[in-house]
Amino acid sequence: MKTTFKQFFNIQTTLKIFVVILILFSYASILCHKINLPTDDLGRHLTNGEIIWQTKSVAQTNLYSYTEPDFESANHHWLSGVVFYLLFKIIGFSGLVIFKIILLLAVFSLVLFISIRRGNFWIASLASIPAIYILSERTDLRPEIFSYFFTALFLFFLYDLEENPAKNRIFWLIPLQLLWANLHIYFFIGIAMTAGFLLEKIITHRKALKNNPLIKKLSFLFLSLIAISLINPYGIKLLLYPLNIFKNYGYDIVENKSPFFLQHLMHNPAISAFKIAVALLIISFFFSFRQWLVFRPIFLFLASLSTTIAGFLMIRNFPFFALIFLPAISINLKNAAERIKIEVEIINERVSSVLKIALPCILTGVIILIFSHYLNEAFFKNKEKGVGLTFQSNASAEFLIKENLKGPIFNNYDIGSYLIYHLYPKEKVFVDNRPEAYPKDFFDYTYLPMQMNEETWQKIDKKYNFNIIYFTQQEGTWWGQSFLRQRLRNDGWAPIYADSQAVILIKNSPENQTIIQQYKITKENIIDKIIYLKDNNFKIQMDGVHLLDLIDRHDLAFDWCQELNKKYPDEGRVWLEMGYLKSAENNQASLEGSSQYLEKAIELGEDLPATYDQLGLIYFNLGQFLKAKSAWQQALNIDSKNQNAKDYLKQYEALNLP
Predict the structure, then answer these.
(1) In angstroms, how far apart are the furthest CA atoms of the chain?
(2) How far from each other are the two terminal CA atoms of the chain, in whole angstroms?
(3) Close Cβ partners of 609 (under 8 Å, ≥ 6 residues apart)
(4) Are residues 463 and 440 in the same domain?
(5) Least packed by Cβ within 10 Å: which of 76, 148, 472, 579?
(6) Exposure of 209 by Cβ count < 10 A (0-12 exposed, 13-18 middle, 19+ buried)?
(7) Following CA atoms 598, 602, 606, 611 in sequence, which dihedral angle do they give, to the nearest 10 degrees?
(8) What is the full DSSP assignment across 524-559?
């Protein structure tokens, strides 16, 4: 017994326990943020769950839209909605956040356990650093969290079968697959993982395939997973849905974009971590393939290759890469780590004894240093720490309901699920954040053109006779921003509500005059209506700046930015905003000031192509032509496909400037 306690409490064991706790705590810290309901899908999932639970049926058409109500649409995550709804009824929004944290911690813990058990502890621990950076890309409460969970379970049971081929625990995957097929569209990953594992065993045992119990079990499992996936409200249609979903997908969303595209639009540590992890993974397979005669990581190679390609195609696939990367690199480098350990022991026993203590201590220090990044305010500048809902999540909908305002509502894409949650069935939406639930032509010829073209807007407005325009105030597209600014400048519409989340406008018609007189937001009263935002965190204060900018109070927005600049002198986004606001004045002094602000923003990390594009324009208007040319060339150095910079340089050359 004394020996057991001595072994347990030795330095290495204590350090390992500490490191595991630190890793899990670091991951938990980035998961612990509030739900931003206006831009989240959760509202629609809760409404889905409520309707399904009450009616005991799953809708076959676009239930929530008045524009395309009869369009056939498969709810490929219907069971997730039911789970979220039932949990919400019991534990509320705060409980849902805690549920998400527990589930995703269980996922990471299981994958880390597999990585340590089959690989090397310190390699797995160090690999957790890029893995968690990558996982930080997807931390919201979505149906996909169940796909992460089942991916980890499949890994566990497949490796368990390899270690215990006589056991039948592997067949638990069949009922789990039934759940997965109804919880999230990525259910095919379980089938693919089983196929990859089966292929590895066929190649490994190719000389003794006949009556091989392991291959028989995996073959039966593979066929059973396909068959069980057919048990869903849509039958074979849902089974084939992953292959067909993008055939009718008329709206581009950020999560479906490649990291190669997004890296030029934003600074995202997950993208950098992904590229580093891919490089490390390739190196690890070099070591692994050198041991081909004794170790054939066919499954790991196929899984790594598939998730790497998936990650390069769409940023939403990053977590699946991370869940494979962690065990793959740990297992691949296990033998290399053991060989180094043996060689050090051979060289000098005393050096080996020192390294056994020093190396874990050094590695622990490195892990603490890097993970401490997640414990400061920087990571949460776009998130709100804690559980429950973010600031003003329900405020705009509560205003609409309290004032008994009626549609038809023209809403933007992002806020659709929020309106479904608060207003259905009394009001339906123009659009919501399900591209597959609307015909592609709807986006191509209605939703997008009506925001880009005034004539099209007037035509569609006449068709539907909109009474309300309801947008997220941080609408992320240039056409949405442009449309919102045009409506705010148009006397035909009156802004009656604005907060850190949303903007509501009402048609300036005789029947709406009472509400307009009571709540109309003007350039003169805007500051009084949103002054309270100054008492909140950085993100919400920046939302206030954006509202002032939207309503063309650039002077007040600039003053607000200057106050923020005093609090956050090293925050590049404040300098960037000041640069844009100052350039709007378009006189010599303001342009000179704008160039200085943008230069400072670039110095503080806002060195994106769009910043250089704007800086080049300002230099050009100041007559500093060589600086303008240099700025646009720098934009192209960062992103060779930057069309704005190409157009500016083409015009520059046409003018025969130096």
Answers:
(1) 92
(2) 83
(3) 264, 635, 636, 638, 639, 642, 644, 645
(4) yes
(5) 472
(6) exposed
(7) 50
(8) TTHHHHHGGGGGS-HHHHHHHHHHHHHTT-HHHHHH
Q: How do residues 526-554 score in pLDDT, each as one tens digit?
A: 999 898 988 888 888 999 999 999 998 99
Q: Residue 246: left (phi > 0), alpha (psi -120 to 50), or beta?
A: alpha
Closest CA to 221 of 254, 284, 175: 175
Question: Does residue 342 sit in the same domain as residue 401?
Answer: no
Structural domains in the chain (count): 2
Same domain, 183 and 283: yes
What number of residues does the chain have?
Answer: 658
Q: Is the pLDDT of residue 317 over 90?
A: yes
Strand partners, 136: none
CA distances 381 to 194, 370, 375, 542, 560, Å, are: 40, 18, 12, 10, 18
Mean pLDDT of 238-259: 84
Per DSSP (E only), the strands in 35-193 are none
The span from the CA of 71 to the CA of 68, in Å, is 6
DSSP string over 500-523:
SSEEEEEE--GGGHHHHHHH---T
**Owning domain of residue 396:** 392-520
Residue 591 to residue 618: CA distance in whole angstroms: 6
Domain's final residue, options 486, 505, 520: 520
